[in-house]
Amino acid sequence: MLLWRIRHVHNELTHNKPAPPAESSRRFLCSYMDTLMYIKQHPTADVVKGKETVSYISVSNQDKHMGDGRKKIRKKWQPLEEGRMKLNVDGAYANDGTAGAGMILRDYTGAVIFAASRQIRVGIDALDSELAAMEEGLALALHWTPNAFTLESDYAEAIKLLDVRSPNASIYASRISVIRELIRERDIQVVQISRDANKASHELARLGRVQGRTAVWLRNYPPEITEAICADCT
């Protein structure tokens, strides 16, 4: 579909017509993808009415089917297949308004690509802190690796907000929109995990909230999360 759109733009230029705006092409391709995903996820639904929502969030093969119909929540950090990265994020928030975000990207061997903590100066609540961690973590991961990766979070409500394709009018709308756009840029899966499988990013978020630390460590991590890193890899 992308090649077809490129050829369409080329033909317009060949015939001395103005090229369609880039935003127009983006919206066209996104709309087409939405339609294909809708048909795939709701094969018996009325496409014209389009009442069902479309989800771009994937779950790993081992989590797709459970005997009782529930998704299995991982209780320990697990590496992915060779070539695929894993991004863990977490937000921290306290009633006094202090907040922080933690992000860590690792490869299939568990080696750290980057670790980051950030102080959130104006925290709204715990959900906003988690979404902030997702947004910054995705932006960093897209910058520091060309590989496909999986985004893991232990905050079910944050993941649910990303899963709904209808417009979001909440106070989180702007951040959710940015996160959805970042997810479109790469082969990115979003998976819910347990708190026990998210210890490293939790400690990074705590550094941002408690110590007010904002930093990025490339191919390294702060000593405060060494125990969590070692626990993950054993």
From TrEMBL:
- Report the transmembrane regions from the record: none
* Signal peptide bounds: none
Which Pfam family is an annotated match for this chain, by its short name? RVT_3
In this entry, which stretches build a coiled coil?
none
Residue ranges of every copy of the RNase H type-1 domain listed in the record: 88-206
Q: Name one GO molecular function term.
A: RNA-DNA hybrid ribonuclease activity
Could you tell me which InterPro entries the record lists for this protein?
A: RNase_H-like, RNase_H-like_dom_plant, RNaseH-like_sf, RNaseH_domain, RNaseH_sf
Q: Which domain of life is it from?
A: Eukaryota
Q: Which PANTHER family match?
A: OS05G0353850 PROTEIN, RNASE H TYPE-1 DOMAIN-CONTAINING PROTEIN
Name this protein carries in UniProt: RNase H type-1 domain-containing protein
What is the organism field in this record?
A: Triticum urartu (Red wild einkorn)
